[in-house]
C-alpha cells in the first residue's frame, strides 16, 4: 500500500479530516457551553444533531427548500427547543448537588429522541442529495467537496458568532462568569436558570447548524447520534473544556486523526485510536491541548 | 425600629445535620457600619450567606426595609439592594477587570447607570483603570479585593456586606481597605462587616456583635466592645497585644 | 435492612423465587425468562452500585467487564482450557470474573489515580469502546465481529440458568451488603463524600477505589459468564454493547443509588417496563424506556426507593 501514498494523497486526507472535523468542533462547542454552566456532559447532543439533520431532510424533501436556506428555520427552531428543553427537563435537576440526575435525564432524552426518530423516519440511513452535492473544487488535484467546504464555513461563522456573543453581550459575559463560579455569579444578580437556559439554547442551536452540515455531507441514521456525541466529547477533551476555540480545534484535530487512521489502518481501528488519543490526553493533559493558561481554582 | 435597614430575627442555619447558627438576631441601622466579629467557625460567614440567600435559614425571619427577604434567591437579594462581597473575593478570574465590573451592574436596576458607575469605580480605584483589560486572576490580592468591592458597588447597593475584606492583605492594603469602608459609609452606604481583624473593625464600627459558636455572645457599640475586658482578653489581647 | 423483619422477608422472597421453577413451566413461561433476565440485571446493577453508588466513581466501562466475562467463558469452553468441564463450571465462571478484575486493576490504577468525576466516566467509556474494537479485531481468537459459537446442543432446560441467575443476584447483593457494613465500606463512603478529607483521615483513596472497581468488575464478569452460557453465540454486538453499561446505571439510579435494595427494585422495575411495553405497546416500546428515565429523574431524583422517604418526610 505504501507505494500509492503520494504527497497529494496526504494533503487530501488532511483536507478531508479538517473539513469533517469542524462538525465535531461545533458539536463540542455546544457541549462546552452546557458543561460550563450546568456541569454535565450533555450526552444527547449527538442525537439532537441527528434530529436536526432529519428536520433539515424533511424540509428539503417535503417543501423543496435548500438545506442551507433551511438554516433560517432550523437555527431559531433549535434555539427555542433548547430553551424549552431546559425549562421542561433540566430546570429542577440543575439546582441539585447530584449532577448525575441531570446527566441521566440527558441519557433518557437521548434514548427518547433516538427512538422517536426511528418511529417517525425509520432506521434507514438518509442523505440529502442536491444538484451541487457531488460538486467539488479541484485546486492542484485536491478534491474539496462543496458541501464539506460549506460545513467549514458554517462552523467558522457560528464559532465567531458564539465568541462575539460571549464577549460582547451582558448575558454572554454572564454565561462565562457562571461557568467559572455559579455562586459568585448569583451574588452579582445573575439567575442560574437564565444562564443555563441560554447556554442550553446555544448548544442546541449549534446542534442545528451541525445537523444541516451533517445532513448535506454524510448519510445518517438515528443511532449515529450517540457516536457523534462521543466524538464531540473526545474533541472537547482534546481542546480543553471551557474554551470555545479549543473545542473547535479539538474537533478538527480529531477529524484529522480519524481521516489518517482510517486510511492507514482499517476502518474499525479508527474509533479505537480516537479513544486512545482521548485517554492519553485525559491522563497527561487533562486541561486540553489548546488551553494556554490554567486559572481553575 | 423604623430606621432599621436590616433586621435578622431568631434564625437557625444548618449545613446538612450540623447547625452553624443558633437563634441569632441582629439589626443594622441605616447608614451605619455594623461589625460581626468572633473566632473562626463562629458563624459569621454563614450569617452573611443566609442574608444574601445562598444558605437559607431553617427558622427565623429576615427583614430588609421592612420586607421579608428570607425566601429570596441570591440574585433577587442583589436586585433589592444588598451586595455581598464573599470571603476569598471570588472574582471571575478568567474575565477581564472591566468585564468583572460590568457584570457588577447586571441587575436591571443598575444597568442603565453602568457608564456612571464605571466612572465612579475607576475614580475610587484608579489602579483598576490601568488594568481594565487584564484578567482579574492576574491581579495582586489587594487589587483583587478592590475589584471585588468595586464590582459590588456597581450594583448601587444600599447595604454592602463585606466578608473578611482584609484577609491575606499586606498592612498597607489593610489600611486602605478600612479607610475605604469609612469613605463608602460616608457616602451613605450601610456596611455589614465580617472581620478577623477585630481591633480595626471595632474601631470603625458604630455597632458590633460578637459571635461565639453560632450564637450572639455580646453586642454593643464598637467602642464599648473594644473597651470590654472580656473582648480584650478573648479576641484582641493575644493577637493584637501591641495596640 | 438492619432489623430482623427485613431479613426474614428477604429470605422468604428468595425461597419463593427459588421455588418458581417447581410451579411454572420454566421452558415455556415468559415470566420465568423475565425473572432470569432480572436476576442478571440485579447482579450487574449491584456491581455498579458499589462503584458508582457507594464509592461515587461513575464507571461507564462496565460493558467491557461484562463482555470480557462472556468471552472468557466462551474461549475456555471452546478450547477446554481448564479441563474441569465447561457447562456451568464454577472454575470457568470464577475465571470469567477474575479476567475482568485484571483489566479493572490495570486500567483502574491510572484512571482512578488521574481522573475524577465526569472525566473518569468518559475515560472508562473510552476503555470500554477500545476493548470492543480489540474483540472485533481479535481474529480467530475472538472470532472477530462474527464472534464465537458455543455448542448449543448441550442446552436441556432453562432451570439451571434460572437458579444460577438467582444465585448471582443474591451473591452480589450479599457481597455489597457486607462490604458496605465493613470498615472497607466506611472508607468507600468517606471517599464518596469527600475525597480530600478521607485521605487526610488516613484512607488510602486509590487502593479502596481500585478495590471497589475490581469487585464491581468481578460481579459483572460473573453475569457476563452466565449470559454467555445462555446465548451460545458470543459476539461483540451482543455482549460488548453499551447497554451493558447504560442499563445498570439506569436501573441503579431509578431504584435508588447507594441503597442496598435500590438495584433490586430498579432492575425489576425497568426490566418489567421493557417486557410490558414489548408486549402491549410494541410500536412505542423503545420510546417508553427513555420517557420513563426522564420522568423518574425529573420527579423522583432519589429513585423509587426515595419515594418511600419522600412520603415519610411529608408527614
Describe the protein's architecture and organization.
The complex is a heterotrimer of chains A (297), B (243) and C (315). Chain A has 297 residues and is mostly helical. Chain A has a single domain, classed as ABC transporter involved in vitamin B12 uptake, BtuC. Helix content of chain A is 73%, strand content 1%. Chain A has helices spanning 7-38, 45-63, 71-94, 100-121, 146-168, 170-180, 182-187, 192-217, 224-239, 244-264, 267-284; strands spanning 136-137, 144-145. In chain A, strands 1-2 form a two-stranded antiparallel ribbon. In chain A, strand 1 and strand 2 (144-145) form a beta hairpin. Chain B contains ten helices and ten strands. Chain C has a domain at 35-241. Chain C has 15 helices and two strands. A two-stranded antiparallel sheet of chain C has the order 1-2. In chain C, helix 3 runs parallel beside helix 5 (117-136) and helix 4 crosses helix 5 (117-136). The longest helix of chain C has 27 residues, at 205-231. Chains A and C meet through helix 3, helix 4, helix 9 and helix 11 of A and helix 4, helix 5, helix 12 and helix 14 of C.
Amino acid at each position: 500500500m505504501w507505494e500509492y501514498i503520494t504527497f497529494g494523497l496526504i494533503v487530501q486526507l488532511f483536507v478531508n479530516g479538517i473539513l469533517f472535523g469542524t462538525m465535531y468542533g461545533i458539536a463540542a462547542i455546544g457541549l462546552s457551553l452546557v458543561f460550563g454552566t450546568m456541569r454535565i456532559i450533555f450526552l444527547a447532543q449527538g442525537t439532537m444533531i441527528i434530529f436536526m439533520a432529519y428536520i433539515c431532510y424533511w424540509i428539503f424533501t417535503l417543501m423543496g427548500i435548500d438545506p442551507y436556506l433551511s438554516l433560517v428555520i432550523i437555527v431559531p427552531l433549535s434555539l427555542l427547543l433548547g430553551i424549552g428543553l431546559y425549562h421542561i427537563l433540566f430546570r429542577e435537576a440543575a439546582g441539585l448537588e447530584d449532577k448525575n440526575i441531570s446527566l441521566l435525564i440527558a441519557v433518557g432524552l437521548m434514548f427518547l429522541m433516538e427512538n422517536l426518530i426511528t418511529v417517525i423516519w425509520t432506521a434507514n440511513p438518509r442523505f440529502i442529495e442536491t444538484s451541487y452535492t457531488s460538486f467539488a473544487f479541484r485546486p492542484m488535484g485536491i478534491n474539496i467537496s462543496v458541501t464539506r467546504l460549506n460545513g467549514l464555513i458554517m462552523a467558522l461563522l457560528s464559532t465567531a458568532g458564539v465568541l462575539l456573543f460571549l464577549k460582547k453581550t451582558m448575558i454572554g459575559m454572564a454565561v462565562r462568569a457562571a461557568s467559572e463560579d455559579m455562586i459568585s455569579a448569583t451574588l452579582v444578580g445573575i439567575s442560574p436558570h437564565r444562564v443555563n437556559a441560554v447556554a442550553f439554547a446555544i448548544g442546541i442551536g449549534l446542534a442545528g447548524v451541525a445537523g444541516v452540515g451533517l445532513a448535506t455531507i454524510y448519510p445518517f441514521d438515528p443511532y449515529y447520534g450517540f457516536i457523534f456525541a462521543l466524538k464531540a466529547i473526545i474533541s472537547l477533551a482534546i481542546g480543553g473544556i471551557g474554551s470555545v476555540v479549543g473545542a473547535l480545534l479539538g474537533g478538527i484535530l480529531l477529524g484529522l486523526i480519524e481521516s489518517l487512521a482510517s486510511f492507514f489502518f482499517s476502518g474499525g481501528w479508527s474509533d479505537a485510536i480516537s479513544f486512545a488519543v482521548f485517554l492519553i490526553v485525559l491522563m497527561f493533559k487533562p486541561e486540553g491541548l489548546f488551553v494556554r493558561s490554567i486559572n481553575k481554582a | 425600629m423604623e430606621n432599621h435597614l436590616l433586621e435578622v430575627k431568631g434564625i437557625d442555619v444548618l449545613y446538612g445535620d450540623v447547625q452553624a447558627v443558633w437563634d441569632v438576631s441582629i439589626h443594622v441601622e441605616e447608614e451605619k457600619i455594623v461589625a460581626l466579629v468572633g473566632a473562626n467557625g463562629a458563624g459569621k460567614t454563614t450569617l452573611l450567606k443566609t442574608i444574601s440567600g445562598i444558605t437559607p435559614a431553617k427558622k427565623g425571619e429576615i427583614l430588609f426595609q421592612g420586607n421579608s427577604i428570607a425566601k429570596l434567591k441570591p440574585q433577587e437579594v442583589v436586585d433589592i439592594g444588598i451586595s455581598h462581597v464573599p470571603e476569598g473575593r471570588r472574582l471571575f478570574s478568567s474575565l477581564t477587570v472591566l468585564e468583572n465590573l460590568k457584570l457588577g451592574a447586571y441587575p436591571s436596576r443598575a444597568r442603565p447607570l453602568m457608564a456612571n458607575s464605571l466612572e465612579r469605580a475607576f475614580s475610587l480605584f484608579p489602579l483598576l483603570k490601568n488594568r481594565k483589560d487584564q484578567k482579574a486572576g492576574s491581579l495582586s490580592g489587594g487589587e483583587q479585593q478592590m475589584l471585588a468591592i468595586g464590582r459590588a458597588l456597581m450594583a448601587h447597593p444600599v447595604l454592602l456586606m463585606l466578608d473578611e475584606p482584609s484577609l491575606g492583605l499586606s498592612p498597607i492594603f489593610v489600611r486602605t481597605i478600612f479607610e475605604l469602608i469609612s469613605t463608602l459609609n460616608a457616602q451613605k452606604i450601610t456596611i455589614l462587616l465580617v472581620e478577623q481583624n477585630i481591633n480595626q473593625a471595632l474601631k470603625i464600627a458604630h455597632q458590633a456583635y460578637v459571635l461565639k459558636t453560632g450564637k450572639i455572645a455580646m453586642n454593643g457599640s464598637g467602642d464599648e466592645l473594644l473597651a470590654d475586658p472580656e473582648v480584650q482578653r478573648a479576641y484582641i489581647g493575644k493577637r493584637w497585644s501591641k495596640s | 435492612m438492619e432489623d430482623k423483619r427485613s431479613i426474614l422477608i428477604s429470605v422468604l422472597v428468595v425461597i419463593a423465587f427459588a421455588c418458581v421453577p417447581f410451579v411454572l413451566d420454566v421452558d415455556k413461561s415468559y415470566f420465568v425468562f423475565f425473572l432470569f433476565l432480572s436476576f442478571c440485571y440485579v447482579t450487574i446493577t449491584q456491581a455498579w452500585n458499589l462503584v458508582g453508588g457507594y464509592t461515587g466513581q461513575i464507571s461507564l466501562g462496565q460493558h467491557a467487564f461484562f463482555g470480557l466475562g462472556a468471552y472468557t467463558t466462551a474461549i475456555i469452553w471452546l478450547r477446554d482450557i481448564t479441563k474441569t468441564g465447561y457447562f456451568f463450571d464454577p472454575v470457568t465462571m470464577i475465571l470469567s470474573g477474575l479476567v475482568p478484575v485484571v483489566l479493572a486493576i490495570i486500567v483502574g490504577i491510572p484512571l482512578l489515580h488521574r481522573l475524577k468525576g465526569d472525566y473518569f466516566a468518559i475515560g472508562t467509556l473510552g476503555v470500554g469502546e477500545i476493548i470492543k474494537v480489540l474483540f472485533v479485531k481479535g481474529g480467530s481468537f475472538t472470532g472477530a465481529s462474527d464472534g464465537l459459537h458455543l455448542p448449543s446442543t448441550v442446552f436441556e432446560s432453562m432451570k439451571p440458568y434460572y437458579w444460577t441467575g438467582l444465585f448471582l443476584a443474591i451473591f452480589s447483593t450479599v457481597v455489597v451488603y457486607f462490604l458496605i457494613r465493613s470498615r472497607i465500606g466506611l472508607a468507600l463512603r468517606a471517599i464518596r463524600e469527600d475525597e480530600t478529607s478521607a485521605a487526610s483521615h488516613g484512607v488510602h483513596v486509590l487502593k479502596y477505589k481500585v478495590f471497589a472497581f475490581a469487585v464491581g468488575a468481578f460481579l459483572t464478569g460473573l453475569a457476563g459468564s452466565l449470559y454467555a452460557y445462555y446465548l451460545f453465540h458470543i459476539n461483540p454486538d451482543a455482549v460488548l454493547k453499551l447497554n451493558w453499561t447504560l442499563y445498570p446505571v439506569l436501573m441503579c439510579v431509578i431504584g435508588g443509588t447507594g441503597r442496598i435494595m435500590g438495584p433490586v427494585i430498579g432492575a425489576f422495575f425497568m426490566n418489567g417496563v421493557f417486557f410490558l411495553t414489548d408486549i402491549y405497546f410494541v410500536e412505542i416500546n423503545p420510546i417508553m424506556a427513555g420517557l420513563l428515565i426522564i420522568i423518574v429523574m425529573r420527579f423522583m431524583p432519589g429513585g423509587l426507593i426515595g419515594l418511600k422517604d419522600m412520603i415519610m418526610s411529608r408527614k
